[in-house]
Amino acid sequence: MRIFDPHIHMTSRTTDDYEAMHAAGVRALVEPAFWLGQPRTSVGSFLDYFDSLIGWEPFRAAQFGIRHHCTVALNPKEANDPRCAEVLQHLPRYLLKDGVVAVGEIGYDSMTPEEDEAFAAQLQLALTHDLPALVHTPHRDKAAGVERTLAVVKESGLAPERVVVDHLNEVTVRQVVDSGCWMGFSIYPDTKMDERRMVAVLREFGTERILVNSAADWGRSDPLKTRRTGDAMLAAGFTPDDVDTVLWRNPVAFYGQSGKLELDGSGTPGTDATFEGNSVLRGVRAEV
Amino acid sequence: MTPDHLRTALTERMTEEGGRWLAGACASVAAEPEVVRGLFPLVGRRCGRGPLDPAVPHGWTVDDAARALLLTAVPLTGTPLLEEIGELYRSGDAAERRAVLRGLPLLPVGDGALPLVRDALRTNDTRLIAAALGDYATDHLDAESYRQGVLKCVFTGIPLTALPGLPGRADIQLARMMAGFAQERTAAGREVPTDIGPVLALFPDVRVPRHRERADVRSATTDRPSPREA
């Protein structure tokens, strides 16, 4: 099973996770820029984080045979802090970088006027930089948040097939399915979605325009939830080709719209990427 | 490595389209230096990546070479040139930073770009460390920092054959540091990289000490002689 995790915060994970992910079939991932659990207080803190997403983290991932890409944005939570909002001016130069395959995570947290402003401005950045957008939906008042999200996306002029609306569930997927946007699901140990509920959603809505991610971060989460979902799909009677559509071909199609996805056969069985250097491996080459 | 060497090597590794793009980019930069900031990130996509010579580990890549040529096209000197390459380095991703480091010996910057070399040597990214210890560091980096850089290569698994400054810049201090490293590795029952051998061989007075001073941490493997003694 080849797996592309379209949303996972590797900065907060260890090399054990990279190793386990590779063993489970993960060969590529996208790490969206988000907050760090502890709120940032300055623009410099964002820039160091973005630099890590286009420098150190891809290096770390490569040592375990995993292709790392990222998305860059001012996230909705921190859009509410005027000390952070200035980072918007720095985004254009990051959006030019090879590894940056979308603008994200953008969208709503508490649906404030500041979030409105940052969301709209960053949808315009996606348009002018010819990139897709990864849109986070709020955990509180989600249905209203999704509705407002779709309205803002529509108004932006960004084509719906270049937008993924993420963290959906059984209720909110119904709002997004007719919009033409991609539908993202974060599979968590005990919140958001679990793999059995995900299989039920796939039964009802099919595999088209659906992305499944682990969204693993520093909170209680599991970077192998993509694999567990693949296994649950097979157990429920989906074919290996269905699993490949959801866990590989769909994320490749969505982020491929950036024109910057570099997979070099990393998802083809038997042609795993080789990697050089080993400072993360502490003197031992990875066995893959 | 000279710009002409890079051009020749690139003609074999770059598509015609990539070559045309690079020629156009160099001409634009020559006319208007600040456009280099927008062009620099695009080089990998336009000119390709991959090693310039597949036989050389940690060597120049196609995008390194193309970016270095772009840097040589920047019509600035002195402080303005240093400021421009400093900005390209600081705002670059790992590949852009690596290319700036590789390009330094081709640019009239004296030892003014050493802060960039030191920045790269503070990272743990082997691509940056290897590029930082190229011809520019060989010619400009002080002895203490150079030794630390070499040791960092040994620790992070960068083959010392990738460093143009060795064995020329090896000194007795470096040999002592390597002997100490070999002792620790042997005491731990771990392998000692063979590529420190040529440096040690230059200084026969420096012996790899036995580790018996720390008898309390001896293990079953510690009686194995170190490669130096074998």
From TrEMBL, chain A:
GO terms for molecular function: DNA binding; hydrolase activity. It holds the Pfam family TatD_DNase. InterPro entries: Metal_Hydrolase, TatD-like, UCP005295. Keywords: DNA-binding, Hydrolase, Metal-binding. The keyword S-adenosyl-L-methionine does not apply. Belongs to the metallo-dependent hydrolases superfamily. This is TatD family hydrolase. It comes from Streptomyces tropicalis. The lineage of its organism: Bacteria, Bacillati, Actinomycetota, Actinomycetes, Kitasatosporales.
TrEMBL record, chain B:
Residues 211-230 are annotated as: Disordered. InterPro entries: EboA_dom. This is EboA domain-containing protein. It comes from Streptomyces tropicalis. The lineage of its organism: Bacteria, Bacillati, Actinomycetota, Actinomycetes, Kitasatosporales.
